[in-house]
Amino acid sequence: MEILYAVATLGGVGAILGIFLGAAAHFFAVASDPRVEAIREALPGANCGACGYAGCNKFAEAVVEGDAPVNGCIPGGSMTAEAIAAIMGQEAVAVNPMVAAVFCRGDRHRSRDFFLYDGISDCAYAQQYHGGSKACPYGCLGLGNCVRACPFEAISMGPDGLPLVDEERCIGCGLCRDACPRSIIRLIPKGDRGHLVWCSSQDRGKRVSEACDVGCTGCKACIRACPREAIIMEDNLAVIDLEKCDDCGLCVEKCRFNAIHPRRERSKEEAASPEAATA
Amino acid sequence: MEKLISILFIYILVDNFVLQRFFGICPFLGVSRKMETAMGMGMAVVFVITISTLVTWLIHYQILVPLELEFLQLVTFILVIAGMVQLVETFLRKASPTLYQGLGIYLPLITTNCAVLAVALLAVRQGFTLLESVIFGIAASLGFWMALVIMSGIRERLELARVPAPLRGTAITLITAGILSLAFMGFRGMLTL
User: Fold this and answer.
1) Quick check: A7 contacting B, CB < 8 Å?
2) Beta-carbon separation of B79 and A20 below 8 A
3) Exposure on the CB side of residue A262, measured as CA atoms within 13 A
4) B191 within domain boundaries
5) pLDDT at B32 over 70
């Protein structure tokens, strides 16, 4: 007899809970379009936020609702764009792959400090403390907010105290750009063609050269040297248009401040021994 | 009334479930990385413990004892707890998808959180009345919540601190938990039932 009571008790409790949970599931049901699920499957699932939505899930919902473009996923690239377009029944448009680049070469040996910062190891904190310890108000503070922001481990801190971007891993989501309190990081088209001015300083002449050995002073020598008119001046900073640049290297010779370098110039080995690179 | 108040204080501070009795260590270390998820986890556990203590007490004294089925205690209690966790999960998925994702695997793991089953079993074993059991459940879960929130506050600060390399990660977390437990030793013996 007792065994029947036991079975009835457990069965009863289970049945009541089951009915209760069934009702709850019905009441709190989340309506979902099967396409949302399918798109989320096609996405990389890194939840990086490069599309402007809070994670892959939100992006998938936005695509189905028509708010986001099918090629909105930057890390996914053309493969993902095609897959999503197929789910949505649209034509895919290619995405231009981008990579992050750190526009400062003023490492410990080539730039000077105002004072020794020994506070919390965070660029945004250091920036608020008297505007940062570096003599250059535009230079990299080297405390690694970009490194921590990267969900793909594509940025590491080089031995010279400047971040190194691994272009193989970087998918151009722009999280590091947003994490940098000095806005030194910019997104540039992927590839190794072209020269760039590796500096972000908007100061002029003497102030730049006093603070750093490799800063752009805005002297315009490169603009005069460039045969293709690929260089323009923006806020006292020379900016090279990668579309027009044909890698002739004339600007590198003209730059007295060593601010212009080819794209693939700073490798890991070089970052390890900055003195060798300067010499 | 006096007993109810002392139950409340004993199980929040003096006999804290996490820091004094080592119940529920898994979510305590697992979801204390961020304040937001710690708060969510705390609330979920408060709900599960309070409701399941109430239901298991009723089942024990209204069904199991009259039918002399006390040996079914463990099975029925776990069944009730699992049901409650499922309810929280269903609700959270609807109410806060962000928190649902933040909690991740730790949400269904409340089912096997030993703090939850411990409260249900101890409430019966200590011979608490229905009201005392519910207060006991609330106090124990509030204690768990408090420990989780304190821990996540400390860990958020540790993120920005320069921790010596060999101690980074799990090591410094366990050291923090140990010092926190040590601090709560100060409440020892201040109140007894």
Assistant:
1) no
2) no
3) 11
4) no
5) yes
Chain-chain contact of A17 with B64 (C-beta, under 8 angstroms): no
Q: Is residue B71 a part of any domain in this protein? A: yes
Go through chain B and tell me how many residues it has: 193
Nearest-CA neighbor of A174 among A56, A45, A50, A80? A50
Torsion of CA B70, B71, B76, B81, to 10 degrees: 90
Q: Is A159 exposed, middle or buried (0-12, 13-18, 19+ CB in 10 A)?
A: middle
Inside any domain, residue B54: yes
| A52 C-beta neighbours (distance < 10 Å), count | 12
pLDDT in tens, chain A (279 residues): 788 988 998 999 999 999 999 999 888 887 777 888 888 888 887 777 777 787 888 888 888 888 888 878 877 777 888 888 888 887 766 667 788 999 998 888 888 888 888 888 889 999 988 888 899 999 999 999 999 988 888 899 888 889 999 888 888 888 899 899 999 999 888 887 888 999 999 888 888 888 898 899 888 889 988 888 889 988 888 999 888 888 888 898 888 888 898 876 565 555 655 554 443
Domain that holds residue A54: 34-88
Whether A13 maps to a domain, the answer reads no
A79 interfaces chain B, CB cutoff of 8 Å: no
User: Is position B193 within any domain?
Assistant: no
Indicate the residue type of A92: A
Residue A273 resides in a domain: no
How many domains would you assign to chain A? 3
Q: State what percent of residues in chain B have pLDDT above 70.
A: 100
Which of A164, A191, A218 terminates a domain? The answer is A191
Residues A114 and A182 in one domain: yes
The per-residue pLDDT for range B105-147, each reduced to its tens digit, is 888 888 888 999 999 999 999 999 999 999 999 999 999 999 9
Domain annotation covers residue A7: no
Give the Cα separation of B134 and B143 in Å (integer).
14
Query: CB of B132 within 8 A of CB of B7?
Result: yes
Same domain assignment for residues A73 and A140: no
Query: A228 is written with which tokens?
Result: 């293709």
What pLDDT is attached to residue A94?
64
Output the pTM of the full model. Answer: 0.64
How many angstroms separate the CA atoms of B78 and A60, rounded? 37
Q: How many domains does chain B have?
A: 1
Which residue type sits at A238?
A
Q: What six digits make up the tokens of B31?
A: 């979801």
Return the half-sphere exposure (C-beta side, CA atoms, 13 A cut-off) of residue B83.
23
Chain B interface mutation, best of A4, A21, A27, highest count of B Cβ atoms under 10 Å = A21
Is B30 in the A-facing interface, judged by CB distances under 8 Å?
no
